[in-house]
Amino acid sequence: MKKIILDITKASSFLKEGAVESYKQQVNDARRSLEEGTCPGNDFLGWLHLPSSVTPEFINEIQSVADTLREKCEVVVVAGIGGSYLGARAVIEALGNSFSWLTGDKKNPMIVFAGNNIGEDYLYELTEYLKDKKFGVINISKSGTTTETALTFRLLKKQCETQRGKDEARDVIVAITDAVKGAARAAATKEGYKTFVIPDNVGGRFSVLTPVGLLPIAIAGFDIKALIQGAADMENATGTDVPFEENPAALYAAVRNALYAQAGKKIEIMVNYQPKLHFMSEWWKQLYGESEGKDGKGIFPASCDFTTDLHSMGQWIQQGERSIFETVLSIEKTNHEVLFPNDEENLDGLNFLAGKRVDEVNKMAELGTRLAHVDGGVPNIRLSVPELNEYYIGQLIYFFEIACGISGNVLGVNPFNQPGVEAYKKNMFALLNKPGYEAESKAIQERLAAEA
Ligand SMILES: O=P(O)(O)OC[C@H]1O[C@](O)(CO)[C@@H](O)[C@@H]1O
């Protein structure tokens, strides 16, 4: 089986000779500290050997619940936010038909995502859309208390019960949450929903290979066994026994830390040339942003969809402040073939492309952009993915996870916590007079009055 290939030559050329190699010791130590559980945040390392430890029985259990929802639902709403949402969406969009939301998919239920915002119009439009649909809900929340998700679930649970009756609703509502704590667990226990546990030692952004990602992905009709196999093979390819020079995750962690610390490259742009990878970048942004952005440090993870964004962000990337580097997700082989037709009149002057694959043009756009951006001072890391299928997406997911664990440790932060996320929540609860926030409510009202 092929592997995804990392090419850092056009990034290391921006660094002093030997800069990447100078991280070898630190990266190897970081990799070992993950393995030995001696790193900061070592109570959140449950993802490290997850791919190789998933049993066929567990996959079968997930598949069987997925099959029930596939059979009983035209639409399944996945309610979750952050790590309880992005992984499933990334995989489903990467593997699915770009237009299934328009054409409908006769074989698989439509997967709709909610609980990831508080847009009133979004929720109105969603509940309207669901009115004549046989729908089910997966309520995903590790804490079980996240406002966006809980609020959405309350609405959808009521609507599902009204439309299908309480008994039938029970068969199509699933909770994926903590084993004992939180409102999602309490509701599931009371109502008798099927549940899956998010292990204590797996943080939200590292949870895509648990039921958090696997159940929605299986409901959407994708092969979760192949996804796990890809991840397990990448687990092997990035183990402590793999030398630094041959370990893609070690090299990625080293080069991005070197670019950050030695070349002033504070922003990493994740780039794709296939629009269906948009949400892979969104997933990656949470993974790296929440893991590394703390203690006044951390590369800012951004993303662009090319060639689309070459016509909006391309100018900035080519000639703006030289604080960026790019990581390109390049798909070697597309799943379909489209040939440019010949046109006798050639009014658009495109006959020079006649008979060529669209992907050939895309690849030249990619190469041309790479050369231009490198000439313009943008280091370029390239990840070549043989094709878009479950197996290689599994490899990619584990590659980014393990590289993130290593990279955060090299940066000197705890990559497995996210204390900063609480600040907005505290203010929001104070403003909404949530019980238990009386002192904060008083303080925030006084502050607003003083600022007025
Ligand atoms: O699964 P939960 O507990 O609802 O949390 C969702 C997301 O919220 C955060 O806790 C903070 O944004 C993320 O780390 C997490 O992925």
From TrEMBL:
<keyword id="KW-0324">Glycolysis</keyword>
<dbReference type="Pfam" id="PF00342">
    <property type="entry name" value="PGI"/>
</dbReference>
<comment type="pathway">
    <text>Carbohydrate degradation; glycolysis; D-glyceraldehyde 3-phosphate and glycerone phosphate from D-glucose: step 2/4.</text>
</comment>
<dbReference type="GO" id="GO:0004347">
    <property type="term" value="F:glucose-6-phosphate isomerase activity"/>
</dbReference>
<feature type="active site" description="Proton donor">
    <location>
        <position position="290"/>
    </location>
</feature>
<dbReference type="GO" id="GO:0051156">
    <property type="term" value="P:glucose 6-phosphate metabolic process"/>
</dbReference>
<dbReference type="InterPro" id="IPR035476">
    <property type="entry name" value="SIS_PGI_1"/>
</dbReference>
<dbReference type="GO" id="GO:0006094">
    <property type="term" value="P:gluconeogenesis"/>
</dbReference>
<comment type="similarity">
    <text>Belongs to the GPI family.</text>
</comment>
<keyword id="KW-0312">Gluconeogenesis</keyword>
<keyword id="KW-0413">Isomerase</keyword>
<comment type="function">
    <text>Catalyzes the reversible isomerization of glucose-6-phosphate to fructose-6-phosphate.</text>
</comment>
<dbReference type="GO" id="GO:0006096">
    <property type="term" value="P:glycolytic process"/>
</dbReference>
<dbReference type="InterPro" id="IPR035482">
    <property type="entry name" value="SIS_PGI_2"/>
</dbReference>
<dbReference type="GO" id="GO:0097367">
    <property type="term" value="F:carbohydrate derivative binding"/>
</dbReference>
<dbReference type="InterPro" id="IPR018189">
    <property type="entry name" value="Phosphoglucose_isomerase_CS"/>
</dbReference>
<comment type="pathway">
    <text>Carbohydrate biosynthesis; gluconeogenesis.</text>
</comment>
<feature type="active site">
    <location>
        <position position="425"/>
    </location>
</feature>
<keyword id="KW-0963">Cytoplasm</keyword>
<dbReference type="GO" id="GO:0005829">
    <property type="term" value="C:cytosol"/>
</dbReference>
<protein>
    <recommendedName>
        <fullName>Glucose-6-phosphate isomerase</fullName>
        <ecNumber>5.3.1.9</ecNumber>
    </recommendedName>
</protein>
<dbReference type="GO" id="GO:0048029">
    <property type="term" value="F:monosaccharide binding"/>
</dbReference>
<dbReference type="InterPro" id="IPR046348">
    <property type="entry name" value="SIS_dom_sf"/>
</dbReference>
<dbReference type="InterPro" id="IPR001672">
    <property type="entry name" value="G6P_Isomerase"/>
</dbReference>
